[in-house]
Amino acid sequence: MQAYLDNSATTRCLERVTDKMVEVMRTDFGNPSSMHTKGVEAEKYIREAKAFFARNLKVQEKEIYFTSGGTESNNLALIGTAMANRRNGNHLITTCLEHASVSNPMKYLEDQGFRVTYLPAGEDGVIRMEDLKKALCEDTILVSVMYVNNETGAVQPVDEIGKLLKEQGKKICFHVDAIQAYGKYRIFPKREGIDLLSASGHKIHGPKGSGLLYVDEKVKIQPILFGGEQQKGLRSGTENVPGIAGIAEAAAACYENLDEKVERLYALKERFVEGIRKLPDAFINGRTGRETAPHIVNVSFPGIRSEVLLHALEDKGIYVSAGSACSSNKPAPSHTLLCMGLEKERVESALRFSFCFDTTEEEIDYCLQELAKLLPVLRRYVRR
């Protein structure tokens, strides 16, 4: 038996998504900028995708931009907005919990002369509103906070942050990395005070290399790629029509009967958490209740290094992650878990288990069964 429990790293493309993409690549393969029929046929998929996301997010079609993925969306949102608003101030705020596609652009912006405040988090992986209030100042022009943490599933108080920023006397742009949240939550940026929002196709059963950035029409932002002026000049480059059609198809599938799907995910998560709590010396990092994301659980197994247990599970056909997949090829202690104040042994023995709408109870039970067998064996081996 196999159990793929690494859905926060990537998800399998739905068949309806691949069918749509094949249709575009084989039949409607024209350049959407071309004026002939083939170009018009290709451009139709972009229009349809924009219309879907505008309805889904309750925003305007002209506020939707397509990118190569979450990393580009985050980079464009942060660098493009910071540079465009530099005359209004040079202070940026983010958290110590962010994905590298946010933290690294912030480091770049620091090199460009911006001042960045990194908000701390508690043991639950959630920032405190008081810390944000204290960090705000006259020079603050941008705040970036992830919706759902990719390692622990902690959910940040996005609504509260949006409301707080809108109450400020000056315009402060609010960017939300929703890459682990989109497809699991109904997100309405204008209602939540979000000015920029990033999403990624391969986290929602769509294709890799597809992404989305919502930019409120009132936001001042400049491009970071220059070329043929596609997408109103903000994101140049021939549009990835198969990818755009694919991410829209995947999103549409995710939001069909969403409440039922999410309820089932929470049931799977609760089943897994209950099983983990029965294992000796296994510690869940962060909260596990309904106030967290339905698809992510982070667990430490002190006495066994993450990569050792990861490969032992792999030998049993069980696939999980040690931290963020984007940095797992360069093993290093999780900055997220360190930010939460976890001791070194907990951090170095942590694994992330992440589910999707297709995950089965059998996969959950099989993983728990194999963990129960592996943990005492590996701990005996380590102690020798």
Structure in words:
The chain is built from 13 helices and twelve strands. With 384 residues, the chain is of the alpha/beta class. The protein has two domains: 136 residues, Aspartate Aminotransferase, domain 1; 240 residues, Aspartate Aminotransferase, domain 2 (3-Layer(aba) Sandwich), CATH 3.40.640. The strands form three sheets. Strands 2-8-7-6-5-3-4 form a seven-stranded mixed β-sheet, with helices on both faces. Strands 9-10-12 form a three-stranded antiparallel β-sheet. Strands 1-11 form a two-stranded parallel sheet. Helix 10 crosses helix 13. The longest helix is centred in the C-terminal third of the chain and has 23 residues. It is globular and about 65 Å long.
Features:
single chain; 384 residues; alpha/beta; Aspartate Aminotransferase, domain 1; Aspartate Aminotransferase, domain 2; 2 domains; 7-stranded mixed β-sheet; 3-stranded antiparallel β-sheet; 13 helices; 12 strands; 41% helix; 14% strand; globular
Helicity, in percent? Answer: 40-55%
Report low-confidence residues grouped into runs of 5 or more. Answer: none
Q: Find the count of extended strands (DSSP E, 2+ residues).
A: 12
> Quick one: CATH class of the largest domain?
Alpha Beta
Counting structural domains, the number is 2
CATH homolog superfamily of the largest domain: Type I PLP-dependent aspartate aminotransferase-like (Major domain)
Number of helices: 13
Distance between the termini: 31 Å
What's the mean pLDDT score?
A: 95
What strand line-up does the widest sheet have?
2-8-7-6-5-3-4
Strand content: 5-15%
Derived from helix and strand composition plus strand pairing, the structural class reads alpha/beta
Oligomer: single chain
**How many strands, what sense, and barrel or not for the largest sheet?**
7 strands, mixed
Roughly how many Å is the radius of gyration? 21 Å
What is the CATH third-level topology name of the largest domain? Aspartate Aminotransferase, domain 2
Shape: globular
